[in-house]
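User: Second chain of the day. Same drill as before.
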Amino acid sequence: MTPFPISEESPVEHGGDLPAQADCVVIGGGVVGVMTAYFLAKAGQSVLLVEKGRIAGEQSSRNWGWIRQQGRDPAELPIMIEAARHWRKLVQHLDTDIGLTQGGVLYLAESQAEMERLERWLPTARAHGLDTVPLDRAGVASRLPGARGSWHGGLWTASDMRAEPWLAVPALARLAATEGAMIRESCAARALDIQAGRIAGVVTEAGRVRCATVVVAGGAWSRLLLRNARVDIPQLSVRASVAATEALPEVTQIAAAGGHMAFRRRADGGYSIAPAEFHELFIGPDAFRSLRSFLPQLMAAPFNTRYLPAAPRGYPDAWGTARRWSADGPSPFEAMRVLNPSPNVGKLSEAARRFAGMYPRLGPVRLRAAWAGLIDTMPDLVPVVDRAKAVPGLVIATGMSGHGFGIGPGFGRVVADLAMDNEVGHDLTRFRLSRFSDGSKIDLGVAA
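Assistant: Same format as last time:
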């Protein structure tokens, strides 16, 4: 199994002509878009999903692969618990083994202060009946036998899971297609077709599709698409690097983070490792426009982000990327089909050394592959999942802030019901679009 096969060179799985119309068009082939299309199709809706590149070609295949309830924002947790139920059911119907494993998640604390910060989340876990428990030094040692580290303690959730994202999301897309969802890869949505102030369709590079509802789940590209439709959201994207080790003896089934490093066991016998709580931001026009909104986040963790002077050509917030264009000609989404950032090799090598130091009996930890993705993030580290009141028929689901893979099936079901004007069964106040314009204070929640 190759660790990261999805790219612009990957074969197109979902092609064909576009329909003239649909009940709903979903823009974006990441996990949230795919699961939205799945639940819409299950409900009998005519749904078309368009993806400019490949299904899961960007962050939905480049993430850690954690399906994590632990540490979620209190408003996200009920949706994540629902998502975990969906994962357990969906895996029974997929045509591929996606490596779904309940290995648990462990957050490690190196100091009493760090342990106290982790324990502040326990009331949230208990309120929702989650199996999260605090561990002392002995508890950490019992769950990570043979590991070396000066851990003060940890927070442990045994019911948390993991899967291989580059296998899982394409398999979910194929399942959605069997339910009747129409999926088209290598087909960019150039613009929203807005007539008389409301959604009338989508203009794609292959033609216009009439519809009454559009879901924008474009990840790092959402802000660019929405801004061209004069809908503004304060979304930025940060680079996150991940690596896969060569096959190693199994030391644990647990997904763990602590000591500036995160790791999990992979289905191919190696480990995915990454620098924990470290991201890189390319400075561009949107970074300046959103600076005030992001200040609370930057001040809360000033050393977790490295700033880079300019994004590569064609990136969503590159200085040369067009902010306005006509739907009659090529769009920025056709100029870059798949975002494929270069990884931070230095940080990944450091993570590999930390992992080797934690498990010295493994010997040298060699990297088999390395990659990076752009995480779409919001100022308060929770997404926008809402109907756009200014444009009837427009539903926005973006800014998953690195939480999207695990929670994707839960938010997919929620967004599908939003698109159908159904009750969603969860309180979405925290995710409302208006929180950035109604004078509300930026609330970092559990990240504070």
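The chain has one domain: 24-104+159-447.

User: Great, on to the next one.
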